[in-house]
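Just curious: can you write whichever protein you like plus the matching structure tokens?

***
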Amino acid sequence: MVMVSICMITYNHQDYIVEALEGVFKQQSDFVIELILSNDCSTDQTHQKITNFLENNTSSNIQIKYFNHTENLGMMPNFKFALEQCKGKYIALCEGDDYWTDQHKLQKQLDFLEMNIKYSLCFHNVYKLNQRNGANESNVMLDYETNQVFTTEDLISQWFVPTASILFRNYSDFIFPDWFYNCGSGDIPLLLLLSLRGDLYYLNETMGVYRLQDNGVSVAHKGYWKVFSMIYLYKSFDIHTNYKFSSKIYEAMIYELQKHTPDLKEIKALQLENKKLKKALEKNNKYSVRSLFNYSKKTIKKIIK
């Protein structure tokens, strides 16, 4: 029986995929691990790096299923595909540009979840490695000093769970709603949905690396795209939960608007198509963030009706 399926999606990670795979193959466990590796038709040398690594590395307790797509699916369809292949009792996430540093990571997390049925998942701390624009800076991502328990309401506040740290229960009756596949990224909606099945437990250990790099998804996930995708996620989740968390979700949407609404220079650089906004910018070069904030709320209300 496969106890843990590792869901690893990758696209153009030729410089990072070997480290991700090394982190998997160094795992020491008393259970069978399944690696689901889904390459979304990378245009660089990612496929060659993967095949070379798999040809030269073996592990007695890891079953490997490598899918090299001949057409680009897109991030969310690729994530959906990979999750559907996972047959383990638990699923661990690690994207192709992140990696694990603790050889007992999976064993520690599985042991905890086996003994604590009320939790839907557990996660841990990671080093955040910033390699954008030629930088090479590393620091511990979370400042929690003890093990802690988190709920759905905590997740709605803001993102704080590193994707590469997650191990969650593979519920047999778990169904992804249609709106899930239209989200800007998969980790946050997945966490929210899982939190409805049980609380989240934080293990106060640093056991992996979350990498920020120039071609990562988060580079594009900013500004208006970030705002609208998060509003869509929160509004969809609000309806999904029959408005149980409406007050908290409203606060979260305001937070996204305040934090991620672009400033004037960024708006000009993006060359937005909205004529009304363009005219306002041309009329008043000192267009205030507050005015932009109010305008965004009106725009978003039209989108989510």
